[in-house]
Amino acid sequence: MTIRPIDAEICAIGSVLIDDACLPELTGVLDGSDFMSAVNQTLYQAILALDKAGEPIDPVSVMDRCAKDGAPVERGYLMDAMDLTATAKNAGMYARLVRENSIRRSLAGLAEEMEERSSAGGDPRGIIGDMMRELEQLEEKERTNELATSGDMMLSFLDHRRKVDAGGGAY
Q1: What predicted TM-score, i.e. pTM, was given to this entire model?
Q2: Cβ distance 90 to 15 under 8 Å?
Q3: Tens digits of residue pLDDT in 19-63
Q4: DSSP alpha helix (H) spans, 19-149
Q5: Exposed/middle/buried for 77, CB within 10 Å: 0-12, 13-18, 19+?
């Protein structure tokens, strides 16, 4: 099954709107710049802000936060995101797909830049060196997003456990 990049983004957001307990699966993989859609970037930033403030994450609070941040989002978009998302259990898969698509866009951008500089008669060694540095930075960011400390994992588990014990869903 192939999931379109925009659908992966929408389902990542929809997963959190369905069950905010899956948010750590997204935050362990994504940052706001991974979303290609400006609307989805806005929603993700609003979700992170709500979580940081300890406020509930649901369609109403997310819409309100977006409006307060000067980037209102239509209620229908959030409802469509939840409708498109079959289950919050796939949040991790959606997050990985969003991240992979972000990397592909970055690689395509680097390839385009390399072609433009080459076509303009740029110094080949300089182009190669610059591209290698850019690729190394991209690889470092990817490695950083993949690694979670044991402390982070324990805090994520304890937060999830607290929500389950308080009657919140476990996805």
Answers
A1: 0.77
A2: yes
A3: 999 999 999 899 889 999 999 999 999 999 999 999 999 999 999
A4: 23-27, 38-52, 59-68, 75-84, 91-119, 124-146
A5: middle
